[in-house]
Amino acid sequence: MWLYDFLIFYNSGQAILSGISPYTIFDFNSPIFLALFFAPFSLLPVGISYVVFLIANLFLVWKLLKKRIIWAVLFFPFLFSLFVGQIDFLLASLIFIGSPWTIALALVKPQLAFVVIPWMIMSFSKNDWWKAIISTSAFIGIGFIVQPNWMKEWFATQPSFEFFSSHASNIYWLIPQNNLTLRSNLTFIGALIILPLGFVLKNRRDSWTILHTFAPLTNIYSPAVLLEWVGPIEVVLSWLAVLLVGGNIHTGMPFFLIGISIFIRGMLEYKKSSKDNKIHLEDLFRPFMVRFFRKQYPKLLILLISQYLFTLYTIFSSNS
């Protein structure tokens, strides 16, 4: 278990450097961009490479959290990420700090892109868009130069969506394991319904938290992407989730509790900072969305009701 994912990524990077397809590496089923990302790590002996990986993670934690780093090193999903060598926090941090040039790193883990990209691109200027397009195009181009048929090989290695759903560690964990078809269907629908919120929420914390809570592909290390907003309550909830499943790391954990906690704390902060002790639309949404709400409220209500009825219909159809 120790370094399990790190060794897969490390070996995929070595395969790239050796001119071999990374999809010959056992259990490597990610886009080729992950192997490209790890190629520099693979230039070093594996032990030194892992130390560099740890230092990079801890440096980014310190840069983003400063004195609150104590909560990060007590947070189970982040500790587990370091233990197995997962990169969700590392990627999210690099994308945020180096944006727009680093936006291409979202290609490394598309499931992470679902969480971080909507808010990021809504803050882009015209020049930012050009920088993002250039870096992303270059990254894609390198991928096809190194392995022209990588997409065919990648799709051939993909497990079923139900398999991914069995590891859900957000809101979809509530749907029983014995009905993975229902879970996977609701995962797909829930993700599509919630995705627009990621673009219109004003605060990065709110956007990333909501999208992560309903993201289509999560695992027990995925909440590390929310590390920047983790405090003592979330640390306790992370270990409580571990206890609730008896330490079983293979079928997901109820880490949606962490996202809910972060979101509630955020709402309380808005309320506390308000002069009238209320939460306002301006606190939550971008200006264009506030105007839309005020002008189109009846139509929006109809849309939300329609989505809700469609979800109920899907649930009924899945069980029939």
Structural class: mainly alpha
Computed CA radius of gyration, to the nearest angstrom: 20 Å
Mean pLDDT, rounded to whole units? Answer: 91
- How many domain modules? 2
Q: What string gives the helices and strands in order?
A: HHHHHHHHHHHHHHHH
**In angstroms, what separates the terminal alpha carbons?**
40 Å
Residue ranges: pLDDT <50 for 5 or more in a row? none
Number of strands: 0
The helix fraction, in percent, is: 55-70%
Main beta sheet: none
The general outline is globular
Number of helices: 16
Oligomeric composition of the shown chains: single chain
Strand content: under 5%
Overall description:
The protein contains 16 helices and no strands. It is an all-alpha fold. The protein folds into two domains: about 160 residues, no CATH class; about 160 residues, no CATH class. Helix 1 crosses helix 2 and helix 7 runs antiparallel to helix 12. The longest helix is centred in the C-terminal third of the chain and has 33 residues. The mean pLDDT is about 90.
Give me some keywords for this one.
320 residues; mainly alpha; 2 domains
Briefly characterize the structure:
This protein is 66% helix and 0% strand.
Topology of helices and strands:
Elements: H1 4-17, H2 32-38, H3 46-65, H4 69-72, H5 76-84, H6 88-98, H7 110-122, H8 126-146, H9 150-157, H10 161-165, H11 180-200, H12 204-213, H13 232-244, H14 256-273, H15 281-284, H16 287-319
